[in-house]
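Regression report. Comparing outputs from two consecutive submissions.

Submission 1:
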Amino acid sequence: MCRRTNERITGTVRHSYFQLSVYELRFASLVLLLVSSSASARLFPSLKAEDIRRISFVGRCEQNQWSTDKDDKIEIMMSAEPGESCEARLHFREPQELKYLASLQFIVRSTRPKQRMAIELVGNTDGDPEDSLARTRPFSVSDEWTPDALRFQQVKKGWRPKAISEIRFISLSDAGRSAPSLYIKEVRFAGSPKNLSASAANAEAVAEGGASEVAAPVAADIPLDHQLVCVAANDLPSLQAQGPRAIPTSITSEFKRLFQMIKAKAMNITSFQRGIAGACLAWLSATWWYIRRKKPSLVTLISPLYEINTRTWKSTRDSNGVHRLGGFNAITSGDLKTIKASGFSSIWLMGIWDIGPKVRAISKRYGQDFLGSPYAIREYRVSEELGSEEEFDALADRAHKAGLKVIVDFVPNHMGLDSDWLNQHPEYFIHRTLSPTETELPDHELEKRNPGYFVHRTPSYPQGHRRVPRTILVAYGKDPYFYPWIDTAQLDYAEPSLRRKMMEVLCELAQKVDGVRCDMAMLVLREQVKIHRHAEMSWEAFNRMMPEEFWPEAIHATKRIKPTFTFMAETYWAMEGYLQQLGFDYTYNKPLYEAICSAFQSANAEGLLNFMRLLGNDFLSRGVHFIENHDEERVMNTLGEERQRAAAAVLCTLPGVALLHQGQLEGKRERLPVQRAVPIHQEPVNVNLRQFYERLLKTTSLPLFREGRLNVLYSNNPSFISYTRFDETAKAIVIINTSAHHQKGSVTIVPGLPLKAGSAYELHDLFYDLKSPETKRQSTVAPTYHYPAAHLITQGLYVELAPYDAHIFIVEPHPDFKLTERLVHALRTLHEGLPLPRVARRVLDTTIMHSEDHQED
């Protein structure tokens, strides 16, 4: 395919321009890359606040604001009222001389696709200033960050500007429909003194023709770094310079420009250069074909997942109560290799972010050895107690070399109450300003009158285009159905700049790790934000502030940087399915955790099996299943050791992500609050339990248990958990006794598991080696069983299981029937391949059909 494409392109060039060999086109391709690089270098830096005298908003604007990032580059947000227009006017401090300008370039997006906008330029001319206006026709804006260049389609006759004094960005709204927000950034001019004549010629053409277009560089002329789709926040430098280079959106346009350059430069290319040019074009075509066909999976398999409480890893406390945290360097290559050898695919490094002194002080009220909650984050930088950014990067590299993916926490709902953001951007938080009568009240009185809020004095409260000191009341972060978390501050997702900021954080994380576990992800859904954070606001006004859900946009933007980046949601309130629809790869399955615990505590599995039937295979395959984590009680306390082994067999044979917690494998009983870094009790390691977990994880590491489908089976014994896992190449039957007593019963195999009538099957028990010696001594237990298919189809599978025992059967055709199937397959292949006479073919057909009928019988 690649060769034919190259030949077709090469033939087109030969016929249209002049005789070029394959080698000639390669040189031209190389020249194209050099020309593109030089064109990128001619881009002027983005406009900064120092270049602008003022920014004014004119027209009927529903909302408008502008700000600058740390690099002092300008970012604009605006939307128009229904049927109206809103203008953002940038007035230059000094007019931009036309001789240095080839075009205006910028990056733009809308919160809704197909939003319309237009652009005007105001120029200083020798004539009437009123005639110094050029305006584009309205054009559509995508809902993704898109590079664009100003292309004139109609200007007033006689427009001969010497310099540009003002740019006007115009947002247009349809009548009867609220306009989405329009975001503009990276505003710059392109050109250089070298193309002065071209710029002047363009200006003359526009002035005389009236409808001509200025020759503006296409989007591909913008540096590839600036085509990266990622939202930039107001208070951080753009991620685009650090992100991976994006692939040009249209290779076709590159080929067209290549051909035009060959036509223009044909007389100056030597025969040797023509040979090199052809080779370059062939290489470019092959590369394009490979990139287009290579489609990475958007969902990464991360099961089993090991949760590491990073602050507790090898941390100690001396006799004086002084803590010494192990930190990132304590998680050595040997530790990671051991985790990988135990059967894990990924690690979740819980509690790595920076915590402020106020958060630590609050935690001391509840325990002198508390070090603050790692979910009350001051800033998304790693805690200095654990190590530096470089040491964390080294840890991530060690994990990747060991074959482990790395998941970290993302906390969307709140920040620590001493977060740096409160001083930089207090508008990110749910807050209210003080009334005149409240300004004289002391802090404790203000907090008494406003429960759920704390007093904060910020030096940077937005007031018009300035930021001024102000005292405000900030809401504590909270779950709406529980008391506030008094060490946190509630974020406001109705604020567009906050949403952009959080996307910026995710984009940064995508360049370091493989995924995020999103804490309480359902709290930032639009319905929750409206009802619990902005109850006093009308839905019409709220829809203008937060027109779309946050998660789809954030997930899409992040996966444009790393398509395999994993989003895992901690969620409750039956929101799992909705969050999966919004783009989450995996969601917590707390109801399944409760159903598993209930089944083993009551010795009745019917509720669990009905729940699994209700959820279905597709939902389960995107669930995060656990019998313990840092928020739940230790499984040694809820189920004990025997029941835990059986529950772990369920956990590791379900589709989806099996999550195991640090200390679970060793049989730990002390549940640590997230604020505590060192356990109070030194518990011995349960060696037998750890060996059981390691063997179970290795046993269930087959692709069948990671990606196969699940069907729940029926049994005449309510104590049995029974289901099948199967894919195109393998089949398994899982049967687990939830009772403390010896149980007998039959399990109906068909139609839950497809079997071929007339065959015989061998059932090999993977769980046999994990059974206790007492169980193995029972006469009914064996590592392998043989059954005719007719018996399994008509009578099912008879099972006797000891207390909390299990079978994990791999179902395979009996070896003798495997040989028969291979012979029939060989006969059919011979039949189809040989040029036999009609009579001989009929005889062979009859023989094959008889063989297959015999197998079916």
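Submission 2:
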Amino acid sequence: MLWLAVRQISSRRTATALAGLGLLTATLGFITLVGTSQTTRAVLRGGIARTWNTPYDLLVRPAGSVTPLEARQGLVRPNYVSGLAGGGITRHQLQAIRHISGVAIAAPVAIAGAVNWTTGGFGVLLDRKPTHGPLAVYRLVIDSTADAGLSRATVERHYIVVAAEGTVRYVEGTRDATLSLRGHTIDCRYPVSCFAPVECDHGQCGPPTDPPNHGVEILQPIVIAGVDPAAETAMLGLDRCVTRGRALLASDHLAGAANRDPPGTRIPVLVSTRSFVDETFTGHLTRAADPAPLLRGAPPQTLASWRQVREIRSSADAMYRAYLPKVGDEVDEWPIWSIGDVSYRERPGGLHLEAVTRPADPSIYERRNTSSAIPLRVTTPPAARDRWFRTVTQHGYDQAEGNRYWAVVGTYDPDCLPGFDPLAGGGLETYAAPTVRLADGRDLRPSRSLAGYINPPPLLLTTLEGAAWLSDPHRFDGRPGAAFISVIRVKLTGLGEPGPLAEARIGRVAADIRDATGLQVDVVKGASPRQVLVDLPAGRFGRPALTVREPWSVKGAALRFTQAVTAQNLALFTLALVGATILVGETAYTAVRRRRAEFGVLRALGWPARRVAALVELEMLLLGLAVGVAALVLGLPLAAVAGVRLLVWTIVAAVPLSVAVAAVAALPPALAAARGTTLGVLTVGNRQRVRRSRPPRFSFTLGLRDLVGLWRTEALLGAIAITLGAGMLGAVVLVAAGFRGQLDTTVLGVYLGERVRPFHVAVAALTLAIGALAAGQIVTLGYLERQAQLAALQALGWPRAHVLRIIAAQGLVLGALGGLTGTLAVWAVGAATGASPGATALGAVAGLLGALMAAALAVLGPLLQAFHSRPADLLRGE
């Protein structure tokens, strides 16, 4: 029987070639699919691994610090640390977390509030005597530019009178003065400052100690955070980022300030080398062309003509850096301020928010024991007179208890600290300012307002002991007391790669922390940023209403994408194997139907039904073996050309895979060949009932009659083949669109989507080829069986074009029928699996278009064969 099977395969060259081609395409397609999947999986795994390698894995916060939006969308808002107005976590809860199995590092951050440092004065220094005449009048206009240059405000407009002679007399207990010059008196109250060779203050007269000058105090908010030095070193390597001095140590304790007046407490601190504040100051110094009207009693504000002298520029960050060596020289008598968080209103259209403003209260910038003659409206930063987005609370103190000196142990560079990969996190860094991007790509940075939309990160790091001292409600009104820790970052052990085991381990530790402390636990391991749109109202200093983009962190993105990759590959592999089996089975079944007479003769010669079935199965097994060897030979160069990495098991599996597909696909044709009696098999082709009918008027109508009449079985198989191709292509597009839909709009999702697109294109092309080949096999085999009938039509005078129209019409009908059926199947699958309407519609449309293309390709072979055939050759022997 083996020799007979070989002869049958070799004698039926066309049918064997079609079946072998289908099986070869399916086998090579599966090998290429697996290789492409492995290559793409390696690329995706690299991207996912970048989000997996985070500085810390869990974020533990007080339960009340999570907004409803975060809880509902699985997000963590940026700048979450600086926006924590108080504490909420105790040292006891910190110790409980550290004792939980699986916790490697628990690093607390205690936001102790903020102070306002006078980082220097911005102003001018002038010559002691005017160069021309007895009097010179200068005007100094100080402008401020912030919010990426969108907000412009005048900080102060001041006038400086410099006299070559005369006396300046200060009013007792104030900084108001008068200038006596040549019998004239000039009023020197704010905003006018006067300088002369003689100065009288508190009853003492003499030459002035300072040259003519004027400056404005530049206040900058300094956020203070308490940390555990050992935990910060273990988690972030804080000690490696020290630029001067040394890092904080666990042995750094509070101490009394010896030999200081007034007394205070020395708090050890590590200071940031930059302030992150985006504000630029420009001083325009001009001189009056004619100062004589002052001698006649006119104020400087009425002078009309001014000449440019010079322009002075500086930035808030430059002034902060220049002030760093002076930190700790003087007692800090400022109150402590706690800064609240921003509230949002959700807007329609996805993650689109509106920042809610709050009533402004610039009086919080007042401080005690100040003798400055400059009004509060000048010393208050312009940004603090702008829109407020946060509540700011001033915590007053008794000077006997709250005075402190900052004992600087060193400075550190926040840019040196390891942060989150651009694919991971999103404002989760503790010591970096959040990224808020304008529509033109520029960044919006923190301002000098404590209530601004963007807050600077912690700039002053102290120990937990120092943070507890600043959080004592007996020392500072309204402070949190023992629950002074704001957040705890947790690093876990033994997580390995992202997957079910790591997910289960993270979930267990997170649950243990919640059970032990009752705190909110967010999994930031494998998080990825997602751009959230935030509307900001127009400012009061020229900034227009803005819609900015912020990277909020989407929790669990890496784990979700890992699961999606696995599910996608499993679905596509199953689809490829099932499609290949059906494809080969249809081809074999059509070939068996064409051999009805042959099987009838074998049955008449005494072959039992099971032997006939075994012959068909053996033929397909031999074909599968030959195709497997061919796939093994062609697979390696094909993969090299396609740039696909093949695994060893994929190459080795080519032969058994081909044999297995052929064996399974041959079962229905083999059973069909063995079915029925000998007489029934021999007479099956002659049992057509003769019916009276009218001759068709069009060749298209004749083609349809043939499909539903004589060749309805072949038509059904052809429609099934096209349905299979349409369904496979639609399902592949549905799986791919569903996978990309799971990638959402996070940075990681966009990154993975760009890298997975070639894989999906390759799979869709492969599926279209399989579907077209399946339809082509069935249509071609059907044509071969009825080519004598078509030749008879040509012999009776039908033009060749009419015969071609019959074949084209039948292919079009099969394509439309199969396409609609496949489209409905894809739609049903999408509805059953809960796919999005967009992904389902895309898959259905792709299936319909693929069916029409497959039908067009399927009839191309028969059309060419019919065009070049000669009726006499086809009818010879009939």
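Expected: both submissions complete independently.
Actual: both completed, but the second showed a warning that disappeared on reload.
Relevant detail on submission 2: The mean pLDDT is 79.
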